[in-house]
Amino acid sequence: MTKYVPARDPFCIAITESTQVGEARRAATSLAHAVGFDEVLSGQVAIVVTELANNIVRHARSGEVVLRSVSDASDQKATSLEVLALDRGPGIANLGQAFIDGFSTGSTPGTGLGAVKRLAADADIFSEPGKGTVVWARFAPRTVKPANSLLQHSVVCLPKPGEEACGDAWAVESDSSGRSLVIVADGLGHGVQAAAAAGLAIRTFRENMHRGSAQIIEVVHAALRSTRGAAVAVIELFHDKREIVFTGVGNISAQVVTGAISRSMVSHNGTAGVEARRIQSFTYAWPAESLLVVHSDGLASQWNLAQHPGLRFKHPSLIAAVLYRDCRRQRDDVTVLIARDAVS
Length: 344
Known about the structure:
Layout (H helix, E strand, L loop, with lengths): L10 E5 L3 H17 L3 H22 L2 E9 L6 E10 L7 H4 L13 H8 L2 E7 L3 E8 L11 E8 L9 E7 L4 E9 L4 H16 L5 H11 L6 E9 L4 E7 L3 E6 L2 E4 L16 E5 L5 E5 L20 H12 L6 E8 L3
Antiparallel strand pairs: 1-2, 2-3, 3-5, 4-5, 6-15, 7-8, 8-9, 9-10, 10-13, 11-12, 11-14, 14-15
Helix pairs in contact: 1-2, 2-4, 5-6
């Protein structure tokens, strides 16, 4: 029996005052039940989301809570849940103390961040004085282990404010040959029709993963002719050769970040399904300890990880969340995907 996952997955709840804390808690409980969590684990998710949302209200005055289900299996069935809490508040001066139960910078019991670390399967935090804080937590039943992938990756993928359907879509897969594949698709415009085009691009990608990136783009271009079209990028990462092969049509941006150096990849003009005059692959080096950053045009291109010391060493969820928080455009759907070699 297939689990029902709500249409509003991911959820993004703006937190500007205390009544929205309850909204975030209810959304978290709903998604936890949809993924298949029992009452105990669903309750733990609700506790953490409540604490994080309350912290935003108390210390930052405004921010967001983002919730999404995650597939840890090859059948794409959602088995875990991720929570992100984002703000542009004063930041946390002493992160080590903040994760200790009983520590508080305000008048509360101070169990918020301690509860995150204690109740979540995995958690991480990034905070900068005067710039804000991002907290990430992952929840899963004890029997569920993270997928055995060659890439550690995460994504923030959200619709334009006011839209239910997201016109962006993405996927990350690895095969037995030591190759990982990434796709990001941005349906033309936004709303239901854009979501249909992007979704078809992802399904076509999964049906043709045995092909190279240029061939996949060609097949996607043909498949999307019945839709309004999409900007699409497909990336192959060859882990043994330390190479990336990139093929893009339209304005999907991708960069390899190695230390303080970023290298952008070339995408040709066009729209898959409408007009793609040239489909061409480009090969780039994939040095050890590099980050792959891929995003749709819902994110401004002026981001710079060097402005956030230490961020590139954090979990990909935190990197994606900081870029989303600081560089998103409100007028479009947005996808920010971060990937690096999986930790062995």
